[in-house]
Amino acid sequence: MLKGLNIAFKDLKIESRAREIFISMVVFSLLVLIIFSIAFSNLLSSASKTATVASGVLWICFIFAGTLGLNRTFATEVQNGCMDALKMCPIPRNSIYLSKVIFVFLLMLLVEIITIPMFSVLFNYQFTAIIWVGIVILLGSFGFVVVGCLISALVIRARAGEMLLPVLLLPLSLPVIIPAVSATSGLLRGEDIFSLMSYIRLLVVYDFVFFAVSMLVFEYVVED
Amino acid sequence: MMLVVALGAIFFYLPVMKDSAGNVLDPSFNIFYFHMPIAIVAYLAFFVVFVSSILYLRENDSKWDMVSLSAAEVGVIFAFLVLATGSIWAKDIWGWYWVWEPRLTTSLVLFLVYVGYLMLRTALDDPLKRARLSAVFGIVAFVSVPLSFLSIRIWRSAHPLMFGGSLYGQDGGGLEGSSLLLVLLLNMLAFVMLFISLTSFKFQNEKLGRELEMAKGR
């Protein structure tokens, strides 16, 4: 666990100097927002209409940006044989996976922290129940990253891996994305959090299940 | 031997259509006798992929890899047939081929996940690596199966629920009369047989293919 944190810290240090992944994620996410804002420009006058599209737009931004980030996480390790060096370290293989989850999760959070106010500005929208929305977004992003890091490690060895990643990842992470999007849109429409508990429960369960399964099988992905 | 089973399946399956014609429901409901067994078989196939993937990772025996591949291919075809038969019925009853509601969405996702599984296999060249990585994917992919199965029980859904109660108190439609149930069970048996025979055909095929590769390599 602690060793995973060490590796994640190393990744963050590299990223804080080069900032290549983070910048492209943020810019991409904002571009998607701008395109939607142009496309939906005639909806922007009414807050209730904006509320119905908000959760879809936000999650598309997060997921696309997240996929972009996931594409690069293991790619940087494969260059110059860094992965072999990591595997030689006297640490459980899981902690490599854990470190990547922490790293991408933090990146996604940063992107989300920038995207949400920008959404507010571009769509002229006032968020309600921001704490609950935040919690749902946290849970959803975590589940997405958990699946994403595993698939990212998997496809890095395949031909045309970067093209394969979204094709495999999007359907697989849907058990997390569906409840996250539904809960977010419910909250933004002003529904009570307790009426959305079934989504939250599903989200938490799938977060745990995906995380546990990925921790168990990751060893086999990097073995060779 | 396998042929006998497959033929048996067809013989089982033919008189069934006549049997079930005279029920009180709309005749298009007859498709249910294909639809549900096919759906169950698709779940079964993906369960086989799941189990044999685990066994492959445990025992490192390429036999299990071949089982996963065979079951996944048959499963994808069955998953597609579920969507197709469901859509035909939906066009007749609901008026649309497709509506976005939980059961349909999750079934589509299930199909796409396993199409992804087959795509992953074609993208990996080294046989050992392919076997190992696709086994990992096969295990993770199975996580989406229960969601599809339970979706009509978890969420309010337009998809009919035949057996068992849902969380929302919508009762199962239920089947009147034991003859209909018998027909359903017969179809179920026939489709399971069909699945087993198709999978083992594919398995034999794959095995022969690999032996050929080995012989060529020598």
TrEMBL record, chain A:
Transmembrane stretches, start-end: 21-44, 50-70, 101-123, 129-156, 163-187, 199-222
Signal peptide limits: none
Any Gene Ontology CC annotation: plasma membrane
Subcellular compartments: Cell inner membrane
Membrane-topology annotation of the record: Multi-pass membrane protein
Highest taxon of the lineage: Archaea
InterPro entries, per database record: Cyt_c_biogenesis_CcmB, Cyt_c_CcmB_bac
GO molecular function: heme transmembrane transporter activity
Keywords, ordered alphabetically: Cell inner membrane, Cell membrane, Cytochrome c-type biogenesis, Membrane, Transmembrane, Transmembrane helix, Transport
Single Gene Ontology BP annotation: cytochrome c biosynthetic process
Role noted for this protein: Required for the export of heme to the periplasm for the biogenesis of c-type cytochromes.
Family: Belongs to the CcmB/CycW/HelB family.
UniProt name for this protein: Heme exporter protein B
From TrEMBL, chain B:
Subcellular location: Membrane
GO cellular-component term (any): plasma membrane
InterPro entries for this protein: Cyt_c_assembly, Cyt_c_biogenesis_CcmC, Cyt_c_biogenesis_CcsA/CcmC
Keyword Protein biosynthesis: no
A Gene Ontology BP annotation from the UniProt entry: cytochrome complex assembly
Pfam family, one: Cytochrom_C_asm
Segments passing through the bilayer: 34-57, 69-90, 102-120, 132-155, 180-201
Keywords: Cytochrome c-type biogenesis, Membrane, Transmembrane, Transmembrane helix
Ranges where the Cytochrome c assembly protein domain occurs: 5-156
The keyword Membrane is annotated on this UniProt entry: yes
Chief localization: membrane
GO MF annotations in UniProt: heme binding; heme transmembrane transporter activity
Membrane topology: Multi-pass membrane protein
Family, as annotated: Belongs to the CcmC/CycZ/HelC family.
Record protein name field: Cytochrome C assembly protein
